[in-house]
Every structure is written in C-alpha cells, then in structure tokens.
Amino acid sequence: MHHVNVVERPSLGRCLEASMKVSAGEILVLEAPLFVSAPVDDMGRLAEQLFKTAFAKPSDLPLVTQLFISILAEIVKGHKASVLSRLSQLRGHPEQWRQTVGQLHESLREEHVSKVEHDELLDLYSKLAANAHETDDKRAAIYSMGSLAEHSCRPSAFKHVHGDAHELMIRALTDLEMGDVVSLAYIPEYYPTWHRQELLRSFNFQCHCPRCAGEEAEVACAFVCPDCASPCCPPRPCLSRGDFEALVCEECGCRVEDAEQLQAFRDAELCERLCESCTPHLHPYHFKIFQMYLGNLQMVSPEQRLDILEQLEDAHGRLGNRVHPLHAKFEELAARSLQALSLGTGNAEASAEARAEAVSAARASWERAAALYALTHGEEAEQSRHCQQQAAMLDGPAPALPESSE
Ligand SMILES: [Zn+2]
Ligand SMILES: [Zn+2]
Ligand SMILES: [Zn+2]
Fold first, then answer.
1. Is the CB of residue 227 less than 8 Å from the CB of residue 254?
2. Distance in Å, CA 349 to ligand 1 centroid
C-alpha cells in the first residue's frame, strides 16, 4: 500500500512525494522487503559455500555484508537476472566499495567465478550499503520505495521495520498536501548545521532542508540571553563550530553583537568539556547540554528525570514537530518516572488523595505516550500496546497500602 509517487525533481533527484492529502500519523508506505539477510546462524554455512577463505566469525560481519552474502547465494544458484532486476531501481556509491568488493570477488570459489562479474558485485554491494535497513531482529533488509525517501533535518515522515515479515512502514509526522516531499531523518536532528552535515557526509548526503540551506535560526546553539536568560541563538545556520556574528534572543528579541560577549559564547561552545567556565553561558537548550541530558537520563532520580524530560521535550519541540518518535520516547520515560513516584507514595504518610493523584498522573502520561506511538509506529506496534497496557493497569482503584510491619 502506498500513498506516494516516485518523482524526479531538479533539486533533489529521485524522491517520494505524497500522492494525496495525508494527515500526521497516517501510513504513506507499507512494503515487504526485496530481500532480508539470512538468519545469522546460517551465515557461516553460506559464506563457506561462496568463498575459499573462511571469515573469522560470520556473526561479526557487518549487516550489509551479511545481506550481500545472502543475495550472492541466490545469484550463484542461477537467479542472477531476477535478483539484479529487483534491485535495478536503487542507487549506490560504487567508488567507496571498490576495495571491499575486490577482496570478496578474489576469494569467490572457483566454481562461482564465471557466474557473476566483478562490476555486478560492486554495483550490488554499493546499492546494499547505501540502502539497507536494520530490522528489529538485527538482520538487514532492503526495500524499493523505502530507499527513495529524501533526508531532511526536519523530516515529514518516520520509518520503521516491523513484525516477522520485516515490512517497512513509513508514516507521516506532519499533515502533507498532495505533492509534498516525503522526507526522513537519517541522523539525530538536535545538532547544529555543521555537525549534521558532518554526519550526513558519511551517507553521501547533501541536505537541502530549510534548516541547512535556508535562513533559519540555529536553535540547537542556544546561549543564555544576557538580558532575560532565555535562549539566544544565531539567526542563521552555523556552517562551522562557533560560526556566528550575532545572536538573537527568542524571548526578548534583543540582539547580542558585543564582541567580547560573543567571544565568551564562542569559547563556551568550543570548550571540550561541560565545565564551570562554559556551562553558565550555555542555555539548557544548547545541543551540548541536550546531548548530555539525553545520555544521562537513566542515572538520575525520577523527580529529576521528569524535569529533564520536560526540558528535552521543549528543546526538541522547537525544531517544529512534536509528533515524533523521540517525543513518544520522552513521554514513555515520563510515564515510567511518574509510576515510580506513585509507588513511592505507597507509604503510610501519604494521603489517599496524594496517591490517587500520582496514579492518575502516571496513567495520563502512559495514555499520551500510547497516543504518540500510535501516530509514529501505529496502534498495533509493540510500543503502543505496551503503553496502553500500562495505562489500563493503572485504571480502577489506587493500589492498597502495604500492611504495616509493626
Ligand atoms: Zn538539513
Ligand atoms: Zn532575552
Ligand atoms: Zn567547558
């Protein structure tokens, strides 16, 4: 099932656009894989059939190589024409893989050498490297439509691979008009432009999204406004670290142009660690603080975690989209923390009222998480069902007080 068209655009090349009006949360693409890599337990046997030289440990092979081996096994069985034609739509970057594929081709068993040309293998490997997706069960799969979606640092859609059939599902994160480009984020979005572009280079992507190519404020580089302490950001995308000539406050609108002040902010951004001298300048919405909190969520108390989650949600929401898998995750973690806190009110001092309130806050949070997951992953997805179940378990009367031990 597809609500997309494959089109050729002068600026983007081949891409997907919505073939009809679609609301946030609706399915744009649902497709079965062209190929899935063989189970990892079969890798050793397949590799041995194909190659003279043994691989140290087949289960350690990169997923792309596992997929390559699985498909190559089909090719040497005599299915070359059908295999290659199924992949003919896809594109890759062969120049990067010349050496890898050269070695693989060299080590092919004698009886297979005549069955496939070196250049065909290079073409195959580079297509897989550029387009393979990792599945839930740690295999690699390749899709036709799913590989054509554009990258954007403000994606209009989200993809995930689900179920035993490894179907790829792409859902809209925003309302789309017919003809709007369907884009996915291939990297985490909460970074400044220069860092996103560094990450994208490894995918051979050049991003033309408004955050990269437009005139948007660099909201992930937020400093503390000298006048009102609100986030104060470069008014244009930063193409290198600390690359800004002025900052504009999101709240009071003041413009920071003082050379000394700007240098202090630049130094804070360039500082390698989060230390006493840089942190006072960095707003909690600054990407360095954001990433630090994101990495430390499990190490703090439930109360602190709730505060941090709210901050992360606010920061990330400034990118323009709260229907987002990361926001669903934030809400799920908040629900978990609220639930832990509601159990904490099970002691004798807490009033029945306080307990009921804590439980109902946790339930509401699970419900919000379930609703968000339903939009990003679908109602039937594992994540949504888990949150629905948690909410349902908190329905009904508050848990009874534990018996006093005295
Ligand atoms: Zn971009
Ligand atoms: Zn201000
Ligand atoms: Zn520092």
1. yes
2. 53
